[in-house]
Amino acid sequence: MRALIEPKPLTHRERFRTALLDFINNALPELDRSPRQQWRVEPDTPLFETGLIDSLAILHLMAFVEQFTGRPVPPRLVVMNHFRTVQAIAETFGLEEEP
Amino acid sequence: MSPVEQCAAPIRQHSALKEFEVTDACIRSMALAQGAQEAAYPALIARDVLCAAEYDRAFPHLLLAAAAARNPEVAPDDLFRLDNLQNPAWFLSPAVCYHTYAQFAGRTLVGPVLITARGKCFRNEGRELSFGRRQIEFEMREIVLLGSGAWIEERLPQLQDEVEAVAAELGIMGRWQVAEDPFFLPRAQGKALLQRLLATKSEYCLDHPDTLALASINRHGAFFGERFRIFNLERSPVHSACVAFGLDRWTAARTRPLLSEPS
Protein backbone atom coordinates (compact mmCIF):
# COMPACT_ATOMS: atom_id res chain seq x y z
CA MET A 1 0.00 0.00 0.00
CA ARG A 2 1.31 3.40 -0.93
CA ALA A 3 1.79 5.98 1.78
CA LEU A 4 -0.68 8.79 1.61
CA ILE A 5 2.10 11.38 1.82
CA GLU A 6 5.15 10.87 -0.38
CA PRO A 7 8.39 11.76 1.46
CA LYS A 8 9.93 14.90 0.04
CA PRO A 9 13.08 14.18 -1.96
CA LEU A 10 16.27 15.34 -0.27
CA THR A 11 17.64 18.62 -1.46
CA HIS A 12 21.20 18.83 -2.70
CA ARG A 13 22.15 20.50 0.55
CA GLU A 14 20.58 17.75 2.64
CA ARG A 15 22.35 15.07 0.61
CA PHE A 16 25.62 16.95 1.11
CA ARG A 17 25.01 17.18 4.86
CA THR A 18 24.28 13.47 5.09
CA ALA A 19 27.38 12.61 3.05
CA LEU A 20 29.50 14.93 5.22
CA LEU A 21 28.28 13.30 8.43
CA ASP A 22 29.02 9.87 6.99
CA PHE A 23 32.48 11.02 5.88
CA ILE A 24 33.41 12.52 9.25
CA ASN A 25 31.96 9.70 11.36
CA ASN A 26 33.02 6.74 9.25
CA ALA A 27 35.59 7.52 6.58
CA LEU A 28 37.74 10.10 8.38
CA PRO A 29 38.71 7.84 11.33
CA GLU A 30 40.01 5.35 8.76
CA LEU A 31 41.99 7.98 6.87
CA ASP A 32 43.36 9.69 9.95
CA ARG A 33 44.54 7.10 12.43
CA SER A 34 46.07 9.57 14.89
CA PRO A 35 45.17 8.54 18.43
CA ARG A 36 42.51 10.86 19.73
CA GLN A 37 39.10 10.65 21.23
CA GLN A 38 36.43 9.61 18.76
CA TRP A 39 33.26 11.65 18.76
CA ARG A 40 29.94 10.98 17.15
CA VAL A 41 29.34 14.08 15.12
CA GLU A 42 25.87 15.53 14.71
CA PRO A 43 25.00 18.38 12.35
CA ASP A 44 25.53 20.95 15.13
CA THR A 45 28.61 19.41 16.80
CA PRO A 46 31.46 21.96 16.98
CA LEU A 47 34.21 20.49 14.83
CA PHE A 48 37.13 22.62 15.94
CA GLU A 49 36.52 23.63 19.54
CA THR A 50 36.62 19.95 20.49
CA GLY A 51 39.89 19.37 18.63
CA LEU A 52 38.09 16.81 16.47
CA ILE A 53 39.46 18.32 13.27
CA ASP A 54 43.23 18.74 13.44
CA SER A 55 45.79 19.80 10.86
CA LEU A 56 45.61 16.49 8.99
CA ALA A 57 41.85 16.00 9.22
CA ILE A 58 41.22 19.48 7.81
CA LEU A 59 43.05 18.49 4.63
CA HIS A 60 40.83 15.42 4.23
CA LEU A 61 37.75 17.48 5.01
CA MET A 62 38.63 20.12 2.42
CA ALA A 63 39.32 17.45 -0.17
CA PHE A 64 35.92 15.88 0.54
CA VAL A 65 34.09 19.20 0.20
CA GLU A 66 35.85 19.94 -3.08
CA GLN A 67 35.23 16.45 -4.43
CA PHE A 68 31.53 16.49 -3.54
CA THR A 69 30.88 19.97 -4.87
CA GLY A 70 33.22 19.61 -7.85
CA ARG A 71 34.64 23.04 -7.07
CA PRO A 72 37.69 24.33 -5.20
CA VAL A 73 36.95 26.03 -1.88
CA PRO A 74 37.63 29.74 -2.46
CA PRO A 75 40.08 31.19 0.09
CA ARG A 76 37.55 33.92 0.99
CA LEU A 77 35.24 31.23 2.38
CA VAL A 78 37.91 29.64 4.60
CA VAL A 79 36.57 31.29 7.76
CA MET A 80 35.18 29.71 10.87
CA ASN A 81 31.58 30.78 10.25
CA HIS A 82 31.48 28.45 7.26
CA PHE A 83 33.24 25.50 8.90
CA ARG A 84 32.18 25.52 12.55
CA THR A 85 29.74 22.59 12.16
CA VAL A 86 28.57 20.16 9.50
CA GLN A 87 25.42 22.26 9.23
CA ALA A 88 27.46 25.39 8.53
CA ILE A 89 29.55 23.62 5.89
CA ALA A 90 26.42 22.24 4.23
CA GLU A 91 24.73 25.63 4.21
CA THR A 92 27.75 27.30 2.62
CA PHE A 93 28.88 24.69 0.16
CA GLY A 94 25.79 22.56 -0.36
CA LEU A 95 24.32 24.82 -2.99
CA GLU A 96 23.86 23.69 -6.55
CA GLU A 97 25.54 26.87 -7.70
CA GLU A 98 28.85 28.32 -6.63
CA PRO A 99 28.53 30.16 -3.31
CA MET B 1 76.49 43.00 -8.03
CA SER B 2 73.38 44.69 -6.64
CA PRO B 3 73.23 45.77 -2.98
CA VAL B 4 70.86 42.91 -2.19
CA GLU B 5 73.33 40.38 -3.55
CA GLN B 6 76.24 41.90 -1.64
CA CYS B 7 74.53 42.38 1.72
CA ALA B 8 71.98 40.32 3.55
CA ALA B 9 70.53 43.50 5.06
CA PRO B 10 70.81 47.21 4.40
CA ILE B 11 73.89 49.06 5.64
CA ARG B 12 72.58 51.96 7.71
CA GLN B 13 74.40 55.12 8.56
CA HIS B 14 73.57 58.70 9.45
CA SER B 15 69.88 59.54 8.90
CA ALA B 16 68.97 56.00 7.78
CA LEU B 17 70.39 54.59 11.02
CA LYS B 18 68.60 57.27 13.01
CA GLU B 19 65.27 56.51 11.34
CA PHE B 20 65.71 52.83 12.09
CA GLU B 21 66.50 53.45 15.75
CA VAL B 22 63.63 55.93 16.13
CA THR B 23 61.27 53.31 14.74
CA ASP B 24 62.44 50.69 17.21
CA ALA B 25 62.46 53.19 20.07
CA CYS B 26 58.74 53.89 19.53
CA ILE B 27 57.86 50.21 19.54
CA ARG B 28 60.15 49.45 22.48
CA SER B 29 58.66 52.32 24.53
CA MET B 30 55.18 50.99 23.86
CA ALA B 31 56.23 47.49 24.93
CA LEU B 32 57.82 48.75 28.16
CA ALA B 33 54.79 50.93 28.89
CA GLN B 34 52.66 47.81 28.54
CA GLY B 35 54.74 46.22 31.29
CA ALA B 36 57.14 44.12 29.23
CA GLN B 37 60.51 43.16 30.68
CA GLU B 38 63.37 43.63 28.27
CA ALA B 39 65.62 40.77 27.20
CA ALA B 40 68.50 40.36 24.76
CA TYR B 41 69.05 37.08 22.98
CA PRO B 42 71.84 35.63 20.84
CA ALA B 43 71.74 35.49 17.05
CA LEU B 44 72.45 31.76 17.09
CA ILE B 45 69.92 29.28 18.35
CA ALA B 46 70.48 25.65 19.28
CA ARG B 47 69.19 22.99 16.91
CA ASP B 48 67.45 21.30 19.86
CA VAL B 49 65.43 24.44 20.55
CA LEU B 50 64.24 24.68 16.95
CA CYS B 51 63.37 20.99 16.95
CA ALA B 52 61.46 21.33 20.23
CA ALA B 53 59.49 24.14 18.59
CA GLU B 54 58.98 21.89 15.54
CA TYR B 55 60.36 24.68 13.36
CA ASP B 56 62.30 22.12 11.35
CA ARG B 57 59.04 20.37 10.48
CA ALA B 58 56.98 23.47 9.75
CA PHE B 59 59.54 25.66 7.96
CA PRO B 60 62.55 23.55 6.89
CA HIS B 61 62.88 25.66 3.76
CA LEU B 62 63.58 28.82 5.79
CA LEU B 63 66.36 27.42 8.00
CA LEU B 64 69.93 28.64 7.76
CA ALA B 65 72.64 26.66 9.56
CA ALA B 66 75.84 27.92 11.13
CA ALA B 67 78.26 25.28 9.91
CA ALA B 68 81.90 24.76 10.86
CA ALA B 69 84.54 22.97 8.81
CA ARG B 70 85.20 19.39 9.86
CA ASN B 71 88.84 19.70 8.89
CA PRO B 72 90.16 23.29 8.76
CA GLU B 73 93.48 22.20 7.28
CA VAL B 74 92.18 21.29 3.82
CA ALA B 75 92.82 23.50 0.81
CA PRO B 76 90.82 26.75 0.89
CA ASP B 77 88.68 25.66 -2.04
CA ASP B 78 87.65 22.53 -0.15
CA LEU B 79 87.13 24.17 3.22
CA PHE B 80 83.37 24.53 2.97
CA ARG B 81 82.66 21.68 0.62
CA LEU B 82 79.62 19.75 1.78
CA ASP B 83 81.67 16.72 2.83
CA ASN B 84 83.87 18.93 5.02
CA LEU B 85 81.04 20.44 7.04
CA GLN B 86 80.21 19.39 10.57
CA ASN B 87 76.65 18.50 11.40
CA PRO B 88 75.40 21.88 12.63
CA ALA B 89 74.42 22.22 16.27
CA TRP B 90 73.60 25.91 15.81
CA PHE B 91 71.30 27.72 13.46
CA LEU B 92 70.68 31.38 12.77
CA SER B 93 67.59 32.45 14.72
CA PRO B 94 64.54 32.63 12.45
CA ALA B 95 62.60 34.57 15.10
CA VAL B 96 63.10 36.07 18.53
CA CYS B 97 60.40 34.31 20.54
CA TYR B 98 61.93 30.81 20.39
CA HIS B 99 64.65 32.07 22.71
CA THR B 100 61.98 33.05 25.22
CA TYR B 101 60.42 29.59 25.24
CA ALA B 102 63.88 28.05 25.70
CA GLN B 103 64.63 30.56 28.47
CA PHE B 104 61.58 29.43 30.44
CA ALA B 105 61.79 25.73 29.51
CA GLY B 106 61.07 23.39 32.40
CA ARG B 107 59.99 26.23 34.67
CA THR B 108 56.82 26.84 36.59
CA LEU B 109 55.48 30.35 36.22
CA VAL B 110 53.97 31.96 39.29
CA GLY B 111 52.34 34.63 37.12
CA PRO B 112 52.12 35.84 33.55
CA VAL B 113 55.30 36.81 31.71
CA LEU B 114 55.62 39.64 29.21
CA ILE B 115 58.98 39.96 27.48
CA THR B 116 60.19 42.25 24.74
CA ALA B 117 63.37 41.68 22.80
CA ARG B 118 64.93 42.86 19.58
CA GLY B 119 67.00 40.49 17.53
CA LYS B 120 68.54 39.81 14.18
CA CYS B 121 66.62 37.09 12.40
CA PHE B 122 67.51 35.01 9.38
CA ARG B 123 65.33 33.16 6.90
CA ASN B 124 66.25 31.55 3.63
CA GLU B 125 63.81 33.56 1.55
CA GLY B 126 63.96 31.90 -1.84
CA ARG B 127 61.96 34.59 -3.57
CA GLU B 128 63.38 37.79 -4.95
CA LEU B 129 65.00 39.80 -2.21
CA SER B 130 64.59 43.52 -1.75
CA PHE B 131 65.51 45.75 1.16
CA GLY B 132 62.58 46.78 3.30
CA ARG B 133 60.39 44.07 1.87
CA ARG B 134 62.04 40.67 1.85
CA GLN B 135 65.51 40.14 3.30
CA ILE B 136 67.48 37.07 4.22
CA GLU B 137 68.57 38.90 7.40
CA PHE B 138 66.28 41.32 9.18
CA GLU B 139 65.60 42.78 12.58
CA MET B 140 62.56 41.98 14.56
CA ARG B 141 61.19 43.23 17.85
CA GLU B 142 58.81 40.91 19.56
CA ILE B 143 56.56 41.03 22.57
CA VAL B 144 56.16 37.52 23.95
CA LEU B 145 53.32 36.56 26.26
CA LEU B 146 53.33 33.50 28.52
CA GLY B 147 50.38 32.91 30.83
CA SER B 148 46.82 31.70 30.96
CA GLY B 149 44.65 31.71 27.86
CA ALA B 150 42.33 34.21 29.53
CA TRP B 151 45.19 36.58 30.37
CA ILE B 152 46.53 36.40 26.82
CA GLU B 153 43.09 37.12 25.36
CA GLU B 154 42.81 40.10 27.70
CA ARG B 155 46.23 41.49 26.71
CA LEU B 156 46.25 40.90 22.95
CA PRO B 157 43.44 43.35 22.07
CA GLN B 158 45.26 46.00 24.13
CA LEU B 159 48.50 45.28 22.27
CA GLN B 160 46.65 45.32 18.96
CA ASP B 161 45.42 48.83 19.76
CA GLU B 162 48.97 49.79 20.71
CA VAL B 163 50.32 48.56 17.38
CA GLU B 164 47.87 50.88 15.63
CA ALA B 165 48.82 53.75 17.93
CA VAL B 166 52.53 53.31 17.23
CA ALA B 167 51.83 53.13 13.49
CA ALA B 168 49.86 56.37 13.68
CA GLU B 169 52.66 57.99 15.67
CA LEU B 170 55.10 57.00 12.92
CA GLY B 171 52.78 58.18 10.14
CA ILE B 172 51.91 54.70 8.89
CA MET B 173 48.42 53.66 7.85
CA GLY B 174 47.61 49.96 8.01
CA ARG B 175 44.86 47.44 8.56
CA TRP B 176 44.55 44.02 10.19
CA GLN B 177 43.88 40.89 8.23
CA VAL B 178 43.75 37.18 9.01
CA ALA B 179 46.91 35.46 7.81
CA GLU B 180 48.74 32.17 7.74
CA ASP B 181 52.38 31.14 7.95
CA PRO B 182 54.24 29.80 4.90
CA PHE B 183 54.18 26.18 6.07
CA PHE B 184 56.12 23.77 3.92
CA LEU B 185 54.98 20.16 4.19
CA PRO B 186 51.51 18.91 3.20
CA ARG B 187 50.58 18.17 6.81
CA ALA B 188 51.75 21.64 7.75
CA GLN B 189 49.53 23.09 5.04
CA GLY B 190 46.71 21.76 7.18
CA LYS B 191 48.16 23.89 9.97
CA ALA B 192 47.89 26.90 7.69
CA LEU B 193 44.23 26.14 7.04
CA LEU B 194 43.61 25.75 10.77
CA GLN B 195 45.43 29.03 11.41
CA ARG B 196 43.10 30.74 8.98
CA LEU B 197 39.95 29.10 10.35
CA LEU B 198 40.85 29.70 13.97
CA ALA B 199 42.19 33.19 13.14
CA THR B 200 45.25 32.50 15.29
CA LYS B 201 47.44 34.73 13.13
CA SER B 202 46.62 38.25 12.08
CA GLU B 203 48.84 40.71 10.32
CA TYR B 204 48.92 44.49 10.36
CA CYS B 205 49.45 45.30 6.72
CA LEU B 206 50.42 48.51 5.05
CA ASP B 207 47.33 50.20 3.69
CA HIS B 208 48.56 50.09 0.12
CA PRO B 209 47.64 47.92 -2.87
CA ASP B 210 51.06 46.33 -2.67
CA THR B 211 50.29 44.63 0.65
CA LEU B 212 53.16 44.32 3.10
CA ALA B 213 52.86 42.83 6.58
CA LEU B 214 54.45 45.10 9.16
CA ALA B 215 53.45 43.31 12.35
CA SER B 216 51.74 40.10 13.31
CA ILE B 217 49.86 38.72 16.28
CA ASN B 218 50.29 35.00 16.75
CA ARG B 219 48.32 32.86 19.17
CA HIS B 220 49.94 29.52 19.95
CA GLY B 221 47.55 28.08 22.53
CA ALA B 222 49.45 25.63 24.76
CA PHE B 223 51.71 24.45 21.92
CA PHE B 224 54.98 25.97 23.16
CA GLY B 225 54.00 25.50 26.80
CA GLU B 226 53.75 21.77 26.11
CA ARG B 227 56.83 21.53 23.90
CA PHE B 228 59.05 23.44 26.34
CA ARG B 229 57.38 22.15 29.54
CA ILE B 230 56.48 25.60 30.83
CA PHE B 231 53.81 25.17 33.46
CA ASN B 232 51.51 27.25 35.62
CA LEU B 233 51.03 26.61 39.33
CA GLU B 234 48.32 24.06 38.53
CA ARG B 235 50.94 22.11 36.51
CA SER B 236 49.17 22.81 33.21
CA PRO B 237 51.21 24.00 30.21
CA VAL B 238 50.97 27.78 29.87
CA HIS B 239 49.57 29.42 26.78
CA SER B 240 51.67 31.73 24.66
CA ALA B 241 51.39 34.40 22.00
CA CYS B 242 53.69 36.89 20.39
CA VAL B 243 53.43 40.23 18.68
CA ALA B 244 56.17 40.62 16.09
CA PHE B 245 57.38 43.78 14.37
CA GLY B 246 59.56 43.68 11.25
CA LEU B 247 61.74 46.70 11.93
CA ASP B 248 63.18 46.91 8.41
CA ARG B 249 59.67 47.05 6.97
CA TRP B 250 58.45 49.60 9.50
CA THR B 251 61.39 51.84 8.69
CA ALA B 252 60.88 51.41 4.95
CA ALA B 253 57.17 52.18 5.34
CA ARG B 254 58.08 55.41 7.12
CA THR B 255 60.76 56.56 4.75
CA ARG B 256 59.54 55.09 1.46
CA PRO B 257 55.76 55.35 1.74
CA LEU B 258 55.05 53.62 -1.55
CA LEU B 259 57.67 50.95 -1.03
CA SER B 260 58.59 50.80 -4.67
CA GLU B 261 61.04 48.08 -5.53
CA PRO B 262 64.62 49.38 -5.49
CA SER B 263 66.02 50.23 -8.87
3D structure, described in words:
The complex is a heterodimer of chains A (99) and B (263). Chain A is mostly helical and 99 residues long. Chain A has a single domain, classed as ACP-like (Non-ribosomal Peptide Synthetase Peptidyl Carrier Protein, Chain A). Helix content of chain A is 45%, strand content 0%. Chain A is built from 4 helices and no strands. In chain A, helix 1 runs antiparallel to helix 2 and helix 1 crosses helix 4. The longest helix of chain A has 20 residues. Chain A is globular, with a radius of gyration of 15 Å. The termini of chain A are far apart. Chain B is an alpha+beta fold. Chain B has one domain: Bira Bifunctional Protein, Domain 2 (BirA Bifunctional Protein, domain 2, 2-Layer Sandwich), CATH 3.30.930. In chain B, the strands form 2 sheets. In chain B, strands 1-5-6-10-9-8-7 form a 7-stranded mixed sheet. In chain B, strands 2-4-3 form a 3-stranded antiparallel sheet. In chain B, strand 8 and strand 9 form a beta hairpin. In chain B, helix 2 runs antiparallel to helix 6 and helix 2 packs across helix 9. Chain B is globular, with a radius of gyration of 19 Å. The C terminus of chain B is likely disordered. Classes of the chains: A mainly alpha (99), B alpha+beta (263). At the A-B interface, helix 2 of A face helix 7 of B.
